[in-house]
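Weekly structure sync, notes
Attendees: PL (lead), two postdocs, one rotation student
Agenda item 3: pending single-chain targets
PL asked that the sequence for the first pending target be pasted directly into the notes so everyone works from the same version. It is reproduced below exactly as submitted, 255 residues in total.
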Amino acid sequence: MGTTRENGSLYTVIQNNIATVEFGHPASNSFPIELLDRLSNEFNKLSKNDDVHVILLKSEGEKAFCAGASFDELMQISNKEEGKVFFNGFARVINAMRTCGKIIVGRVQGKTVGGGVGLIATCDYAMAIESASIKLSELTIGIGPFVIAPALKRKMGIVALSELTLAATEWKNAYWAKEKGLYAKVFETISEMDKEIDTLTTNLSRYNPQALTNMKKVLWEGTENWDQLLTEKAEISGKLVLSDFTKEALEKFKK
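Predicted structure, written out during the meeting:
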């Protein structure tokens, strides 16, 4: 059952040293700022929890994995500070995932747009089903995927980032995303994917947690400047979202 609350929902269940974090929002699992803040706080909290050895990140339902930033909140931004705060919400989630002492596995059961692609790229391992296409449509509304770009570049490389951002109206299929390194595995059905995820997370939960934490640090070497870097990128988006181009584009989308 999906949430109907306008600020979305976030549930965490911890069982057998596996923390399953599930986010949801009635608008295709998109992110208002409050939900972004709750998610980053959750990762920070789980990072310190000795009962958790691995984290599974998933979203509600069987349709979209994540539609990115909340459209309604994007339209309400009225000054640079509000813009920076909003886009910094994504920066904080990415940095919380990056610095979290636990391996994060992503479960992608549907299409993903914008900031949601950044979340997948920040998972340490992600599995998806065939219909889990991705798109970065930010340029079409006069902004860019600046905050998530470092995560995508690290995971998929500059060529894939270029293709995704510049072909802003184009969906890239799950097999393209796997070839570029975003997904580790792609499955025909959700049940096949869940079976594989269960095997992986169970195995990870039984490994030496200290070894996993040290491995996580190795995987993220060279990103120590991201706290500052992503905040700077959030400022760029925060300014652009106030442009006449973006205001007009958002109005058209709304209609």
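Discussion points:
- The domain at 9-206 is CATH 3.90.226.10 (2-enoyl-CoA Hydratase; Chain A, domain 1).
- Residues 40 and 93 are 4 Å apart (CA to CA).
Action: rotation student to compare against the earlier draft before next sync.
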